[in-house]
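Lab notebook: predicted structure, single chain.

Context: the supervisor wants predicted structures on file for every construct in the current expression panel, including those that have not yet been purified. This is the next one on the list. No modifications to the sequence; it matches the entry in the shared construct table.
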Amino acid sequence: MNLEKYSGVIPAFYACYDEKGEVSTEGTRALARHLVGKGVKGLYVGGSSGECIYLEKEERMKTLEAVMAEVRGECTVIAHVACNNTRESCQLAAHAESLGVDAIASIPPIYFHLPEHAIAKYWNDMSAAAPNTDFIIYNIPQLAGVALTPSLFREMRKNPRVIGVKNSSMPTYDLEIWRRLGGPDCAVFNGPDEQFAAGRVTGANGGIGGTYAVMPELFLKMDAHVRAGEMAKAEEIQHEVNAIIECMCSTHGNMYATAKKILEINSGLRCGSVRAPLAPLAESDLPICEECARKIRDAVSRFC
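Prediction complete. Output recorded below exactly as produced.
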């Protein structure tokens, strides 16, 4: 399998809202165009950064439709389609395939701790609803409450459409496990933005992350250094990125609200706030957002 389309920097796409808090087709298309214009490899739509569990099924469809209308054929598009029930997940999977996405992805079902055979059936049912589309497992145990295990991964790899793992657990060793068990035709994505360079060295084909969209230039440059074997340069950018992420996480509001404000400051994009119960920005957060935006501009000017 040619994994090139799953290699490199793939921002996790933000949910875009209008002034009334409704999903904005215009804002979604503008963000997609902005990111593709920066040169990213692809877009990961409808995941954690897309506030997926707080959006209605129809809103998620509307977002994906807007992305595909804007950039289909210009980049890799991975659609996260998991809901906390199989029926709607399968509906989103079929819808994503009808739009021509490159892959669908899914976290495990949350809240109830299901046995592995039930999780496997959930994922395989979803894959069967999009039988011509690649399937990527999304492992994020710190939020889902369920961790991908070697035995479950081996079971899922029996499905020929299961081609990779988006790994957002913190140990980089997990990346090595999925790389070794998956073999050369398996795509492995680094999830934690704070360890992008380390994840790439450990064997990740690329990365999917929630802060890439506010500073794609830095992740693209870091990725270029990794590809060239210039690890000291990649490490220098990683340290700068981590300081920016720490600044972003210091606001009272949710980090994605912070990210959207940074995009507005630096790029003029208006993506709105976040969907309740996520916390919007407080007045006291605005100077922090300005500081983060400045740090990004300074880093881009120095490294890129």
